[in-house]
Amino acid sequence: MTAAPVRKLTVRAETFPLAGVFTISRGSRTEARVVAVEISQGALHGRGECVPYQRYGETVEGTIAAVEALAADVAGGLNRSRLTEHVRAGAARNAVDCALWDLEAKLAHRPAWALAGLPEPKPAVTAYTISLGTPEAMAAAARAASSRPLLKIKLGGDGDAERIRAVRTAAPRTRLIVDANEAWTPDMLEANLAGCAAAGVEMVEQPLPAGHDDALAAIRRPIPVCADESVHDRSTLGELAGRYDAINIKLDKTGGLTEAIELAKAARGLGLDLMIGCMVGSSLAMAPALLLAHGARWVDLDGPLLLAKDRAGGLHYEGSLVFPPQPVLWG
């Protein structure tokens, strides 16, 4: 019997300049630094991408080291189940998990969605992000993007009522969701939620810092509140009771598509709505997440739209409509 070809893991850092300055409550940047992983078996190659996030103690260098430490295990036949059991959730595991999914799909000559037992992905409307800035600057950006059906507005604490009013005036017919990135305090919570509700905002994402969001359970929430930094994988889901109405599933938090699928099932079982989100990365990072878009109330996979140039063979976007990946990209 001929032995199966040994799998080889390679990893590298890549940088994608942004089309403009991307600003949230924690700071600004002009480029996306990602980690790309490839797992080869014979002539076939599976790929994955992650975006290390400093908020979670991750760096590009540390993520590369964590991936490289798995090379021998991958060569020995590491599968997704063992990866999930023995490697903590986060960016490094995500890139390896998604590369394994891609390789499995190629080996089986079947799409990843079929292997996962998921519905065939369809084109989905993604949110388009408006960076944090002055009310005037945000209104100008919203006006320029007002033909898009769904805008995600980054907020930052003080002055958010003025920002959201300015955005709504500039884009009167566009659906709006907002993301405070943990920047609110309990004393501004009710007023800011009321202001968002008055502006017709559909949802507010992570208003309070993770671990300090008890106040959400003590007030009446006029619009849904979505957990982002407060939820990573299934182990953190139980901490959300009474505080949140939805969760934002990002593969860089769950540690890959394998855990994300299970997290989505568990969240639905608790009656939580789903948002499928992303860090700012290329189409290779977005492609696996699109497999979960069918069950999400909100999709936020606009990373490639924020880049000056996406990777070759990237996802196809028509305005805010993002189409499922071609096999040459992933899955």
Automatic annotation (TrEMBL):
It holds the Pfam family MR_MLE_C. Its cofactor is Mg(2+). GO terms for molecular function: metal ion binding; racemase and epimerase activity, acting on amino acids and derivatives. Residues 135-226 form the Mandelate racemase/muconate lactonizing enzyme C-terminal domain. The active site is at K154, K250. Keywords: Isomerase, Magnesium, Metal-binding. It comes from the Bacteria. InterPro entries: DgoD-like (IPR034593), Dipeptide_epimerase (IPR034603), Enolase-like_C_sf (IPR036849), Enolase-like_N (IPR029017), Enolase_C-like (IPR029065), Mandelate_racemase_C (IPR013342), Mandelate_racemase_N_dom (IPR013341). Mg(2+) binds at D179, E205, D228. The keyword Ion transport does not apply. Its EC number is 5.1.1.-. Belongs to the mandelate racemase/muconate lactonizing enzyme family. This is Dipeptide epimerase. It comes from Blastochloris sulfoviridis.
